[in-house]
Every structure is written in C-alpha cells, then in structure tokens.
Specification:
Order of helices and strands: EEEHEEHEHHHHHEHEHEEHHHEE
Radius of gyration: 21 Å
Strand content: 15-25%
Helix content: 25-40%
Strand order of the largest sheet: 6-7-8-3-9-10-12-11
Low-confidence stretches: 324-330
Shape: globular
Oligomer: single chain
Structural class: alpha/beta
Largest sheet: 8 strands, mixed
Distance between the termini: 47 Å
Length: 330
C-alpha cells in the first residue's frame, strides 16, 4: 500500500494579540491510499486546523505553517497556493463541519452541484446536470431532478449534509476529509450519514480522513485512529488495537464519555474535568497532566515523546495504561 498523504513535523501558528498561538505542534502522519483514518479529539485539540493546513486552506498574514506536506507524490508545502488549488476536487476534497452554513443560501442546489463539474472537469451545462442527478442518486436523495431546483433553506439538516457529500465527491477525489460530518444531526441521521460515507469510500476507492470528537463515530468506520490533544498526536493505532489496548489516559477519558446503553436512566455521563492548556502558554510537561488521574511529578516537568508499543501502536505518555501505576490523589 502506498502513501497518499504524509505530514512531517507540521506546525501551525496564529499571531494574536496575546502572542503566538500554536494550534498544531510537530505532527507526523502517514496516510495510506485506500484506507480510512479517524482524527479524534475534543474541540480545540487542533484536528480541524491540521486538516485544513494539509489541504492548504489556511490563509492570512497571521498564519504560519511549517513542515512538509506530501500528497500523491507531490510536495504541497513547496507549491504555490494556485498550484495547490488545482488539486481541489479531483485530488482532495472536504466535507465541512456545518451543512447549514456551508451551502450558499441564495443559490439552487443544482447550481452549486454543477459549478465544480464545469470548472474542474470542463463539463457542459447538459453534462453537468446529468452528472448532478447521478450524484444525488448516489447519496440516496429521492427525486433528484426536483432537488436540483430547491434552495438549501427548503431542506433538512440530513439532506443538506448529503448535498455537501455529493459536492465533495463530484470530481472523484482521491482523498476526502470529512470534518465532523454528523454535527447537529439526530442519532438516526448520523448513522445514515456514516454508513453512506463508508459505502461511498469503498465504492469509489477513496481514502477518507474522518475528523470527529467522538470515539464512537470512528469505531466501525475507520481502519486507523490518531488521537489529538493540545495540537499533538498523543496516540495512534489500528482501530481494533486502539479500542482493545488503550495506552493514553486521554483516550480512555474520551472513551468513557461515550453514552453507554448499560447506564442507568438519569445517570450523569463521565466528563473530563478541567480544560485544554492555553495554546499561547504551553506547560513544560505533558499537556494532559493537569487533567489526568494517573499523573505523577515527572508528567508536569518533562514533555513525553511518542513511543511505540507494538504493531505501530504509538502513544505519548510517561505512565501508559496497563502499567502498574497509582492514581493521583485529589
């Protein structure tokens, strides 16, 4: 299996009135073609910034991106913005977080679907309309011809998300980023969207990066998982290995916060106490130490590097789960 996207020491900083905000801190990630990888972490962990940086979507005088980004044999980090844009649609595509705002409210669905087909693939109006109907059918939207005439405000959240998926896959991209694709959708619709994405990935032979805060979302929909915290990857492993043998206390905390059918009615969900460290003033040691029930003195004084357990299972922790360690006394 060959690599389709490789990030090497990726760093992203934003200049703010409070100083340099480091959103992504030296991330290394190698995504193999044809696989599905989940990027998991709570809000503010850096997963969305990392994804957009990889696609070259971060612009502005206050943004600094360092490191090497390689896509499908090309070094994107050495290319101009216009050269990177030429990879959009046919090379890389993204489903953005909020389908309520990602679609243009004053343009019909057909117009928004056909735009990329005509610009990227050079299709005629007739060809792009026929292809749009095919795409709407592919994402399981009933009465696709009538859908072309509608505006986003006439659709439910689930239908808007299906439209966003249709636009993203319209030019047959090799790599698809799905950034929180089930946000603001009810549980039934979430399951339908995840099933659809998995089906499309396999049918179209795409590589997919599923960005989410929910470990439950990646459980049955990915081959590999990378857990992010405070701008760093803190654990990385094949999905089955990660769930069977978690090493990082943060991963365990995320897992415990997933609703469980065995929980008693009315019981409170476990939460991760505290908050992410200030990205403009990083602590010396482990970024999770202040919130970790396993933390020892070393955790606050020295920053852990990624260690390998077995079979490519990486973790960033001085006292990984499974070792005989005492809990911190509160």
């Amino acid at each position: 299996m060959s690599s389709i996207l490789k990030l090497e020491n990726l760093r992203v900083r934003f200049s703010t009135h409070r100083g340099q905000l480091e959103a992504v801190r030296g991330v290394d990630l190698d995504i193999q073609a044809g696989t599905s990888i989940g990027i998991v972490g709570e809000s503010g962990s850096g997963k969305t910034v990392m994804s957009r940086a990889a696609m070259g979507l971060l612009t502005g005088s206050n943004v600094t991106r360092d490191g090497r980004i390689s896509f499908d044999g090309k070094v994107l980090s050495d290319m101009s913005r216009e050269e990177v844009r030429n990879e959009f649609g046919t090379g890389m595509a993204m489903i953005f977080q909020d389908p309520m705002t990602a679609l243009n409210p004053v343009r019909r669905i057909g117009s928004q679907l056909q735009e990329s087909l005509r610009v990227r693939l050079g299709m005629s109006r007739k060809e792009s309309r026929a292809r749009s109907i095919e795409l709407l059918t592919l994402v399981r939207i009933p009465e696709p011809k009538q859908m072309l005439r509608k505006f986003p405000s006439q659709l439910s959240g689930g239908m808007r998300q299906r439209i966003m998926i249709a636009i993203a896959i319209s030019c047959n991209p090799k790599l698809l980023f799905a950034d929180e694709p089930t946000t603001a959708l009810d549980v039934t619709v979430q399951a339908q969207i995840l099933e659809l994405l998995t089906d499309l990935r396999q049918r179209l032979n795409m590589t997919m990066v599923l960005v989410t805060h929910d470990l439950g979302v990646v459980a049955g929909n990915t081959d590999y998982v990378a857990v992010m915290y405070a701008g760093e990857i803190v654990e990385q492993a094949p999905t089955t290995e990660l769930f069977a043998n978690m090493k990082m206390p943060y991963t365990e905390a995320l897992f415990k916060s997933i609703p469980n059918i065995q929980m008693k009615a009315g019981s409170r969900l476990p939460v991760i106490e505290g908050r992410l460290p200030d990205p403009t003033d990083r602590p010396l040691g482990c970024g999770f130490a202040a919130r970790c029930s396993y933390a020892q003195e070393k955790c606050f004084a020295e920053h852990p590097e990624l260690e390998e357990a077995k079979d490519g299972h990486l973790y960033r922790c001085w006292f990984p789960l499974g070792d005989s360690i005492p809990r911190k006394v509160s």
